[in-house]
Design brief:
Length: about 300
């Protein structure tokens, strides 16, 4: 049997998102197959002997479970359509690279100093003027170590604390950034997360302290002049070249938009109805629908 899409997953909390994609696929008359840790080897053998065929691969596993890489690489090598190849994800996930690319593209970011990996340069000195531009407190984050805010320091007062942190991630670059203070008005904290999925942008309020989402309404956009957020996310998509990602954008007290967290290349799609910090269910539904719509409209023959 030839399936329309294979869904590779290695995370138990992805179940609802994958199920929504399957449901949207059934409505559209498309067929799906799930590839997980239990059947990966079996599916790989079937893929090689052509008893398993599919047109698209939506891989949510290879970036966190290297065992899935062989599956994606073999499929792509034989002209299969991978919705988000691992090579694209790795490039876009490097915060230092994205910072430089954003600057070249004219996307506003916090003032940032990029430190080399500890293994390349154990001791780093900053000038008084650089420290002054960072301000206090400032934020420090590794360039490539991602997931669950690993290695991120939100309120750094002493530069020496960063030097100590680098020892624990000796192969990673570190970004030191001025701390962005968002506008607070009408009981709202003006911090947002924009989701990009196949040329469409969805935006939410994202409380960076409470870690909670609320849908951004059309009225919100109109009242507070938030339409530039959508254009910023589209501009980011042209830079990072991913088909599905999210970015955090803040409106400052001077009502300027600053991209705070550049590219979240593997979006957490847990449902808000089940997790306090989950994405609104209706938005996860829309993203699943957009994925299936793209597949439905794209002609790929085997």
């Amino acid at each position: 049997m030839i399936y329309d899409i294979a869904l590779a997953t290695d995370w138990e909390y992805d179940f609802d998102f994958i199920e929504l994609i399957q449901r949207e696929a059934r409505v559209a008359g498309l067929t799906t197959i799930i590839v997980n840790e239990d059947n990966l080897d079996r599916c790989f053998e079937k893929l090689k002997n052509k008893t398993l065929q599919f047109r698209f691969l939506f891989d949510r596993a290879s970036d966190t479970s290297p065992a899935f890489l062989k599956f994606q690489e073999y499929f792509q090598k034989h002209n299969g359509y991978v919705i988000e190849p691992i090579s694209n994800i790795k490039w876009a996930s490097d915060k230092a690279t994205m910072h430089l690319e954003f600057h070249q593209a004219g996307i506003r970011t916090p003032f940032t100093i990029i430190l080399p990996p500890w293994i390349e340069n154990e001791s780093v000195l900053l000038s008084l003027s650089e420290l002054a531009q960072l301000g206090r407190p400032f934020v420090a984050k590794p360039a490539n170590t991602t997931g669950g805010s690993t290695g991120v320091m939100e309120n750094v007062e002493i530069f020496e604390d960063v030097l100590d942190a680098r020892i624990h991630l000796i192969n990673d670059k570190y970004l030191l950034q001025e701390k962005v203070i968002p506008l607070e008005k009408d009981g709202k904290r003006f911090w947002f997360r924009g989701f990009f999925i196949f040329d469409e942008v969805f935006c939410t309020w994202w409380h960076d302290q409470k870690h909670s989402y609320e849908m951004l309404s059309t009225e919100d956009v109109k009242i507070y002049g938030l339409s530039p957020i959508f254009e910023i996310v589209k501009k980011i998509s042209r830079v990072c070249k991913l088909r599905f990602f999210s970015s955090e954008i803040a409106m400052t007290i001077t009502e300027e938009f600053v991209v705070v967290d550049y590219v979240n290349e593997s979006c957490d799609m847990r449902l808000k109805s089940k997790c306090a910090d989950g994405v609104p269910d209706i938005l996860v539904q829309r993203i699943a629908n957009r994925i299936i719509h793209f597949i439905k409209e794209t002609e790929i023959c085997i």
